[in-house]
Design goal:
disordered C terminus, single chain
Length: 256
């Protein structure tokens, strides 16, 4: 049965940008599973309310609705044990839980003030108004003020990623010899930024810059190209592999 996935988009329904949805997309690809994408926007909460959530990702597997990227990853691991493991065992799953929290705070939380004022430009008027009001209430200041000085403050974000660099000195991925869900947790934040903002988070000589590109290419999409292969048009503001690394055909809608 084809899975379905509600994913956050803006005015372009073919550009999903939630970091949490990207974690789930990478997990699905790792498992070799296809999912029909259902575009969802910030103010469309009624569409997912019947599934017990007010935010995405929400994955539908037949009659089962699975909410939250971490819960979805565990569901995929337990429901499809015959497919490649996302964690590599119970120990990897336990460490993954810690990395999931660290990714929320250090990666996504660190990226947010660096790109926040770039996001409304990708949203329709109603969603842009919702996003601005809700995020400015959270920040206690205008989005532009929160993002001011990012050319200097990005240094602190880059420094916070040192544990990743230390890990990648001795292995190609956070998961070890091959990428696993630990990599997808961190990757989701970078992919989010890449879709909505031209701001350069990493220098080209940063080991994380290379890791980000190889992680984008490390999974094989069911019935599609390897993620990140050339041949897909690259928007001029985004300097690393294509925003749209795969194309599904048939019943699954194209995740461009």
């Amino acid at each position: 049965m084809l899975l379905k996935l509600y994913e956050l988009v803006g005015t372009d329904a073919a550009r999903p940008f939630s970091p949490f949805c990207w974690r789930t997309r990478m997990a699905l690809a790792h498992k070799g599973l296809s999912a029909d994408s259902i575009p969802w926007r910030f103010t469309e909460k009624a569409a997912i309310a019947p599934h017990g959530s007010d935010k995405v990702p929400v994955m539908l597997d037949g009659e089962n609705a699975v909410v939250d990227s971490w819960v979805i990853a565990n569901y995929l691991e337990d429901t499809y044990p015959d497919r490649p493991s996302l964690f590599g065992g119970d120990g990897g799953r336990a460490v993954g839980r810690m990395i999931n929290g660290w990714g929320d705070i250090a990666v996504n939380g660190g990226i947010f003030p660096l790109i926040v004022a770039d996001i409304p430009g990708h949203l329709g008027p109603v969603d842009a108004d919702y996003f601005r009001k809700s995020r400015e209430a959270r920040l206690g200041k205008p989005l532009e003020e929160a993002m001011a000085g990012r050319d200097k403050s990005v240094a602190g974000f880059r420094k916070s990623l040192e544990p990743m660099r230390l890990t990648l000195k001795t292995q190609p991925y956070l998961g070890g010899k091959v990428a696993n869900y630990a990599d997808y947790i961190a990757f989701g934040g970078f992919q989010w930024a890449r879709v909505v903002s031209p701001f350069k988070l990493l220098e080209a000589d940063d080991p994380l810059y290379a890791w980000r590109g190889t992680t984008a290419r490390c999974v094989r999409w069911p019935g599609a190209q390897i993620a990140g292969l050339s041949g897909v048009a690259l928007p001029p503001v985004h300097p690393w592999p294509p925003v749209y690394p795969w194309r599904n055909t048939g019943a699954a809608r194209a995740i461009l």
